[in-house]
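User: Here's a structure from my thesis project, written as structure tokens. My advisor, Dr. K., wants to see whether a designed sequence matches the one we expressed. Can you design one independently, without my sequence as a hint?
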């Protein structure tokens, strides 16, 4: 059975047209099907029109009173659907209804678990789109190239085997549920060329807020797809903040207390280390609930001390053999040492200091 999920908001005119067309296409292709309409309490009477359709067609209607958003509406549709295959499409007639059988066929044949309607694969196109709209669409897709090889990652037309969603936690922002599903499931997919048409009635929901949500969604998906890379990026940001603390303390002690830079570096290190621990615990690795403070802090100190000696050794070599003869010459020597020790500190912090598994053994 095929469940076609239609998220709606103010689609009163379109819903009366698209539902019969969907069911006619399914019937002509000898596919058993239903339409699941998830409406965000449209003030134009969309839900009333859907309920009337349900009297004559296999239509299921769910009205959300306190929540809006295409992606979350689709997720509700997944919950309500009875079919083994779910098709997601816009209710504004921009996606070609006649393509539903071609979207479903590769999944039924076991060739893939997901199909995506693409405007940019061979045979696909967008009707009457001006240059700027095409540019924005293409550029938006380019931003997602690190997540998927889809030619049209911002597409909203998809068919998926429901079993592919088992155990997957979907947490989309905005409208791009297709991209969310592709990235989170890592399912086998095929692209089906479609001709995208602009809506004839109603008002488009695409605005700057939706575009901003897309950027936020991309960020979250990149975090999901490359967690270690972004942890390292956060670690470096924390390290940079620590560097500022370290350098300020170092300069202050050397210039105002007139201590040897190598001695001053000890005090600078202690101040920066404590600040870094707090930021890494609560932000970089977010393990405040999973690890004990005392245990993780002790490990963190041990790792940082080891990294510090790596830093100090490099700093000593630079000071002894590469005296630049300029004011504050010891500062770049300290920075080089910190840089070399950063990789060691990250690996040790991630897999030892903030390891919940190691913490459970103590």
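Assistant: Designed independently from the structure alone:
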């Amino acid at each position: 059975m095929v469940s076609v999920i239609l998220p709606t908001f103010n689609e009163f005119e379109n819903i009366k047209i698209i539902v019969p067309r969907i069911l006619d296409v399914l019937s002509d292709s000898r596919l058993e099907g239903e339409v699941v309409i998830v409406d965000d309490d449209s003030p134009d009477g969309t839900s009333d029109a859907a309920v009337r359709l349900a009297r004559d067609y296999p239509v299921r209607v769910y009205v959300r009173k306190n929540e809006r958003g295409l992606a979350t509406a689709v997720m509700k549709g997944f919950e309500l659907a009875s079919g083994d295959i779910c098709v997601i499409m816009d209710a504004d007639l921009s996606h070609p209804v006649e393509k539903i059988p071609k979207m479903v066929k590769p999944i039924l044949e076991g060739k893939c678990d997901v199909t995506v309607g693409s405007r940019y694969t061979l045979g696909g196109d967008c009707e009457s789109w001006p240059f700027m709209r095409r540019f924005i669409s293409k550029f938006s897709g380019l931003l997602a190239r690190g997540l998927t090889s889809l030619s049209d990652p911002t597409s909203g037309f998809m068919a998926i085997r429901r079993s592919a969603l088992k155990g997957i936690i979907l947490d989309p922002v905005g409208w791009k549920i297709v991209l969310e599903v592709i990235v989170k499931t890592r399912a086998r997919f095929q692209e089906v060329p479609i001709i995208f048409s602009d809506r004839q009635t109603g008002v488009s929901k695409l605005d700057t807020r939706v575009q901003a949500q897309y950027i936020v969604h991309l960020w979250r998906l990149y975090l999901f797809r490359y967690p270690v890379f972004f942890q390292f990026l956060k670690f470096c940001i924390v390290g940079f903040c620590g560097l500022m603390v370290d350098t300020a303390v170092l300069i202050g002690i050397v210039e105002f207390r007139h201590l040897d830079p190598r001695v001053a570096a000890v005090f600078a290190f202690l101040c920066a280390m404590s600040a870094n621990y707090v930021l890494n615990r609560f932000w970089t690795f977010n393990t405040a609930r999973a690890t004990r403070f005392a245990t993780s802090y002790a490990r963190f100190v041990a790792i940082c001390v080891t990294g510090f000696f790596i830093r100090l050794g490099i700093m000593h070599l630079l000071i002894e053999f590469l005296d630049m003869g300029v004011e504050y010459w010891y500062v770049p020597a300290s920075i080089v040492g910190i840089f070399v020790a950063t990789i060691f500190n990250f690996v040790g912090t991630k897999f030892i200091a903030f390891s919940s598994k190691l913490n459970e053994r103590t």
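When you compare it with your expressed construct, this may help: Strands lie at 2-8, 33-39, 59-63, 85-88, 114-118, 125-126, 158-161, 189-193, 195-196.
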